[in-house]
Amino acid sequence: MRPGLFTLLCLIMVGGVLRAQDAPADIPLIPYESADFALQALRPDGWTQAAAGVFARASSPTDSTVILIQSATAPRAAYEQSLAPQLLLDAFPAPDAQLITAAFAWDLYRVDINAAGQQITVSVALAATEADDRTYAVLLQSTPDDHDTLREQIFLPVVESVVAWAPEAVATAYTSEDVTFSSGDLSLAGTITIPPGDGPFPAVAVVSGSGPSLRTGSLLPLADFNVYTTLADHLSSSGIVVLRYDDRGVGESEGDLATATLDDLAQDASGAVDYLRSRAEVDPARVGLIGHSEGGIIIPQVAANNAATTFLIALAGPAVDMTQVIAEQNRMLFSGMGLDAETVDAIAAQFPLIQAAIIAGDDDAIRAEIARLQTLQTGAEPSDTLINAGVAQFRALDTLGYWTYDVAGYWQQVGVPALAIFGGRDTQVSAPQSAPALQELLGDQATIVTFEAMNHVLQAAETGLPNEYAQLPAEIMPEVIDVLVEWINAR
Questions:
Q1: Domain check: are 465 and 338 in the same one?
Q2: Are residues 143 and 218 in the same domain?
Q3: What is the pLDDT of residues 112-143, one digit of tens each?
């Protein structure tokens, strides 16, 4: 979950026709600010936040109008290189004009995108600039008929309003320190937060979920929410030392995440445990791990191999093999999107077939089963490009060791107290699937709590679908924090 520039080109097709919407004569703009994107700006009032820094007009089911207001610590050339294919361009064009504002000198572009095989044109207005090692971008997507009006009423005023911004540091009762620790030959970078007082205190290291994760636990591009920073703030305000770190090969940590296995990530978490035990502020008899999502399958392996781990906490962590997890995840996601039950069942049934083909090393079968999965998911025959992307994705999971990782076997080796928290509205890790399985594996050794309203990222949710994350408050359910603090401090 690495912060970056994330474009969202929503080609919404209904009956092959994308219709212009009636634009109001005057569109009010309201303040918007983002600490992750390091900016303040204006945005359209009444538009729905579809993702972090992305706002959709959504005036009808066929309305694809969105505006994106984002930045990233990336060179502008890298941004243009990543954006060009999304605009169906072989190379990024020269700007049409330049706009000088109080804060920046912007290059302005217009691109008309024709969706292949559809009688659809989408017009995109883009403003881009680079300052202080950060690229800023504003992008408006609309129909050609709406474009000129929206450009004048929304796009240009938003561009003129963008300024660099960072929130003032908030005083906390605890102290924060950037640190490094060793994992084999690698140096991993993180932040430790320490409560006031002499200690020694109980301590936890946070083991992240899947994908490239920073110590903040940023959910970009889905939402402007730093889950692990928020978690550490609550716990260290309640007498608990917290270490959170950048994944290997991410942020300031050494290594290569693309070639890492789950065993490698377990080694990293074990290094975090050893580092916590070396700190004078930490009680070495009360050092544990919090594993979120994928981190929840890694932490029992650490405890099985590193006796310094004295307790475990799994937050939305699977307790069954990953093929079952991914199949059920797809079942929940596509059911939530309204697909019929027969198609959803067929989607879920594809994953064991893909797993078997990968384990057998049958490349033809892998491609065929992935193509079948994509056909079921999209309702259309996939292109070679899409199939290749799917193969790469499943190969990456194979590199990690997903298809043969013995989650239950590691939990059975755990001899320390464990707390597991699940969400009833989690559409990525099913509480009905994993909670009973973990209870059966650990018995009285485990405390298992399910919050019916909780989603996968610990928010109080309505649907639990990932596209809802950005629409919810960027905060962890207070009930979750209460259970964590009480349970850890009781160790």
A1: no
A2: no
A3: 887 544 456 789 999 999 998 889 999 999 98
